[in-house]
UniProtKB/TrEMBL annotation:
Stored Gene3D superfamilies: Dihydrodipicolinate Reductase, domain 2, NAD(P)-binding Rossmann-like Domain
Sites where the protein binds NADP(+): G15, A16, T17, G18, D19, L20, A21, K22, R49, D87, V88, K150
An annotated GO cellular component: cytosol
MF terms in GO: glucose-6-phosphate dehydrogenase activity; NADP binding
Active site, UniProt feature: H242
Keyword tags: Carbohydrate metabolism, Glucose metabolism, NADP, Oxidoreductase
Pathways per UniProt: Carbohydrate degradation; pentose phosphate pathway; D-ribulose 5-phosphate from D-glucose 6-phosphate (oxidative stage): step 1/3
EC class: oxidoreductase
HAMAP family: G6PD (MF_00966)
Family label: Belongs to the glucose-6-phosphate dehydrogenase family.
Protein name: Glucose-6-phosphate 1-dehydrogenase
Binding site for substrate: H180, K184, E218, D237, K342, K347
Length: 495
């Protein structure tokens, strides 16, 4: 990792006329610029097929920054952007790109550092990587980094093929596979909460933790991504990457230091310890769902199959819940429940760690009710941590009631925490690979979800099976009920 106060680089965005560039990449680069995380020594080259001029590119970049951004600073920012149209499958066009990069490199004093950001469909990743190598566009004087967007493959086999293609042109340590959950402030905080607090770390094992629940619910439906999503589904879209990454951070052993390699090696051990579920037993561990129509917040909502013509009769899952077992010394017997889905009651990502209850609570009014201690890590939209304890009800009663100790991240810092992409782009510029997925993580997580998907591909589901605006199918509740647990509410008002 370089110790650069204001890293210098040429950022080449393949897919600069697309949605991701507009919604995430340009605004993130702007915030790095505005916050002084990067100085004037950078330039961005945007690539797409559209025959845009530099001026039109500038207008689009400026518009992507929102209405509040205008004036001299916005103009100074967009002046660093250059549009260079070509079809990425046309090998001859890369020569011209090379000339442009060399010219900009001296103009912007970027010391030969180059980021190639592939914000395009994955079928182009291999072609682009090969052409960059073939036409000597990898830097000779500085560093070169290849940033790859998801999805990284469709299953283990296709991910491996893709990996073979890109690693024939770039070394593993030059490849930055984005998982934007790893850039979220509270996901990064998991490690700190665990390893910087004795009261948690000493209890963080199967003697004191009854179960862990990770929910990432979305109120939005498939929106305009039907083409992508219908081939993907919730398991590939969310479980293979974001959900399993959160499981590894919650379950890993303390690293010996904070080097990316050490942290990664602990995460990989967890992925290797995930219980291999026999295909015939998948239904005991995983539940899939697809939303049907319903009303939410007064709006009449369509079911998934009515969202677009090509989705009629689709059997793609828009919801997954699962019980993940980690068969190692620390976690033997502790279920990690995950659930994620579209068109659920609300947008929320939250982790609930349920501690083992005491054998007898003399202060519990209703003995049949359990009131275990909970540690809740709020990832979004609220950011913070809440610890649920039991304390005496005020007044003459000697019964206990749950109370909560809450820390709200935003309120304390009184500024918005950096957006995930902003953080990850900066990490890439300083060469910090901690928050990117290594091939070993990607391959192990594909192998894990492939078993589930294989099993499901052999049986037609009875879809739709949950109403838009609900919290998913009933079977997902049964997963926990069978173990004597229930999902703790994720209602944002709760915290
Ligand atoms: N959008 C999002 O929120 C997210 C997207 N992603 C991933 O990011 C990547 C990009 O997604 P998104 O921006 O939504 O996609 P879009 O369809 O909006 O954009 C695709 C881009 O690729 C360019 N392109 C396509 N074919 C060629 C070609 N042959 N030569 C040169 N340029 C080409 C298009 O430019 P033109 O049309 O001008 O040729 C456009 O800029 C995908 O891998 C997606 O899965 C990941 C997470 C979230
Ligand atoms: O990667 C993805 O994530 C988003 C959810 O991200 P969040 O930061 O809003 O929680 C999801 O909507 C999308 O389908 C998926 O591709």
């Amino acid at each position: 990792m370089e110790n650069q106060e204001k890293p210098k680089a040429l950022i080449v965005i393949f897919g600069a006329t697309g949605d991701l560039a507009k919604r995430k990449l340009f605004p993130s680069i702007y915030r790095l610029y505005q916050n002084g995380k990067i100085g004037e020594d950078f330039a961005v080259v945007g690539i797409g097929r559209r025959s845009w001029s530099n001026e039109l590119f500038h207008t689009n970049v400026r518009n992507s920054l929102g209405d509040d951004v205008s004036g001299k600073e916005a103009e100074a920012f967009v002046s660093h952007f250059y549009y260079h149209p070509f079809d990425v499958s046309d090998s001859s066009s890369y020569e011209n790109l090379g000339t442009l990069l060399n010219n900009l490199e001296s103009e912007y004093r970027t010391e030969g550092n180059r980021i190639f950001y592939l914000a395009m469909a994955p079928q182009f990743f291999g072609t682009i990587a090969n052409n960059l190598k073939k036409h000597n566009l990898k830097s000779e004087t500085g560093w070169s980094r290849l940033v790859i967007e998801k999805p990284f493959g469709h299953d283990f086999e296709s991910a491996k093929q893709l990996n073979d293609q890109i690693t024939s042109a770039f070394d593993e340590n030059q490849i930055y596979r984005i998982d934007h959950y790893l850039g979220k402030e509270m996901v990064k905080n998991i490690e700190v909460i665990r390893f910087a607090n004795g009261i948690f770390e000493h209890l963080w094992n199967n003697r004191f933790i009854a179960n862990v629940q990770i929910t990432s619910s979305e109120s939005l439906g498939v929106e305009d991504r039907a083409n992508y999503y219908d081939l993907s589904g919730a398991t590939r879209d969310m479980v293979q990457n974001h959900m399993l990454q959160m499981v590894t951070l919650l379950a890993m052993e303390p690293p010996i230091n904070l080097n990316p390699e050490e942290i990664r090696s602990e995460k990989i051990k967890i992925l290797r310890a995930l219980r291999t579920i026999d295909e015939k037993n998948i239904d005991d561990y995983f539940v899939r769902g697809q939303y049907g129509p319903d009303k939410m917040h007064g709006r009449k909502l369509r079911g998934y199959q009515e969202e677009a013509e090509e989705l009629q009769n689709s059997d793609t899952e828009t919801y997954v819940a699962g019980k993940i077992m980690i068969d190692n010394y620390r976690w033997a017997g502790v279920p990690f429940y995950i659930r994620t889905g579209k068109r659920l009651a609300e947008k929320c990502t939250k982790i609930v760690v349920e501690f083992e209850d005491i054998p007898l609570n003399l202060y519990q009014e209703e003995q049949s009710e359990k009131s275990p201690n909970l540690l809740v890590i709020n990832i979004q939209p609220n950011e913070g941590v809440t610890l649920y304890l039991n304390a005496k009800k005020p007044g003459v009663s000697s019964y206990s009631e749950p109370i909560k100790l809450s820390y709200t991240h935003e309120a304390v810092n009184s500024v918005n925490t950096p957006e995930a992409y902003e953080k990850l782009l900066h990490d890439c510029m300083i060469g910090d690979t901690t928050n990117f997925s290594h091939w070993d993580e990607v391959s192990l997580s594909w192998k894990f979800v492939d078993r589930i998907l294989n099993r499901w591909s052999k049986e037609e589901p009875d879809f739709p099976n949950y109403a838009a605006g609900s919290m998913g199918p009933e079977e997902a509740d049964n997963l926990l009920k069978n173990d004597g647990f229930h999902w703790w509410p994720v209602n944002n008002e709760e915290e």
